[in-house]
Design a protein that fits this description.
By secondary structure, this protein is mostly beta strands. The protein contains 4 helices and 12 strands.
Length: 218
């Protein structure tokens, strides 16, 4: 489990293509003793397992499915990636609960500078859209951000100067892909309130006691 607060921007030093997928070697300023083999680390919002250390870097494997459904399948040597170590329970939760299980790859549609900040308009894949609520949370390449102005298939995020300094989101340009993870709590709420395939309408509300006779709320 993670919080969406980036701890370091690492650099992919090597990409190895293997029968079981990819092995990424990533250099970082984080102490390698805090990333022992077997521990979890979020790489651009994707939860990976550290498998080895090599020449000031750590290595992590990316399976075929993960490579297919996230941007890590396009990783190249020299690329920069957001890194976050796993949450320590009892510590501060400055972002929101992030699992590192990416729901889909979105796309940058627009980029605009607003004073000392940057606004991005992002297209969301279908799996993410039901959970985009005004002022809700979303993880973009592993960064906890606030959803603004959600529409049918897109939403806006505002990058403040601190976010621009500590992440590489300010470098994104229209057409680039980003890993998106919807809010975990929102997923559970939707699962329990509206089972798979069932929408929330007047019939659903009446059946579950939220509406009385004539459609009046109780």
């Amino acid at each position: 489990m993670f919080t969406g607060i980036v701890e370091d921007i690492g650099q992919v030093s090597r990409v190895r293509h293997r029968a079981e997928g990819l092995r990424l070697e990533i250099t970082t300023r984080l102490p390698l003793e805090s990333l022992p083999p077997g521990c979890s680390v979020a790489v651009d919002g994707v939860c990976l397992t550290v498998c080895a250390h090599a020449k000031g870097a750590f290595a992590a494997d990316v399976g075929h499915e993960t490579a297919r459904v996230t941007t890590l399948g396009r990783a190249r040597a020299g690329g920069r990636v957001h890194l976050e170590r796993a949450l320590v329970f009892g510590g501060r939760l400055d972002g929101h609960l992030v699992t590192g299980h990416v729901d889909g790859v979105g796309e940058v549609l627009e980029r605009s500078v607003r004073g000392s900040g940057v606004d991005l308009v992002l297209r969301a894949p279908e799996a993410v859209r039901p959970f985009l609520v005004e002022k809700g949370s979303v993880a973009v390449d592993g960064v906890s951000l606030t959803v603004n102005a959600p529409s049918a298939d897109a939403f806006r995020v505002a990058l403040v100067p601190h976010t621009l300094e500590k992440t590489r989101l300010g470098e994104l340009r229209p057409g680039e892909g980003i890993n998106l993870e919807a809010d975990l709590i929102g997923k559970y709420v939707r699962h329990f309130v509206a089972p798979a395939g069932q929408g929330v309408d007047e019939d659903f509300l009446a059946e579950h006691g939220f509406l009385g006779p004539g459609g009046r709320s109780r």
